[in-house]
Amino acid sequence: METNLLFPALKAIAAFFDGCKVGYQGTKGYRKSTDLFKFIHCIRELRTLGFLDKDSTVFTDLGCADGRVNIFMSYFVRQSIGIEIDSEILNEYTLRRKGLDGLLRQAGLPLPPGNIFLFNGNSIDPETYKRMGEETGVGFADVDIFYTYITLHDVFGEKIAAEARPGALYLVYGFNRILPRYGEKMEIVLPDVGSQGIAALYRKKE
What is the CATH number of the domain that holds 76? Predict the structure, then answer.
């Protein structure tokens, strides 16, 4: 993949998904979508600080919806895994991915790598991670970076504090100034990832 085409590809992906964004800033639906243009800045800082390695990092979106964040992250990690409890929402991935790939090809931009794995399941249920392990070779304790868009962030934070490996990162999107705490086992690494006033990064203590 040509590095000079990487961020133009991300901007094209962000523009594509911006047209189908839902939530408080979109169509007022029951889902909330990550602002991918802002997320680009988050990725830049995570890369600069060495938190992303395309040869080793395992990323998991705990509520991936149509997989848009997984597509973004696939360029920077070894495995980009997503879990979505609503099968109808998850099924949107296939059609949107087809449209996105066509757009990227037409623009001469790199397609997402073949390292995206999406699962229909409950992100709290151990059975979900059993299936994930069977299909990807990695389980909950192998994940390097967990991600969520604020919904159930506290429940996920408790699970990460209890079951994730020491040093695992937890990226939470949707915060502004008031940052929650997830117990003594979790520490804030970056209170404002990418200086967008929208995401915070936590780490499970060693």
Answer: 3.40.50.150
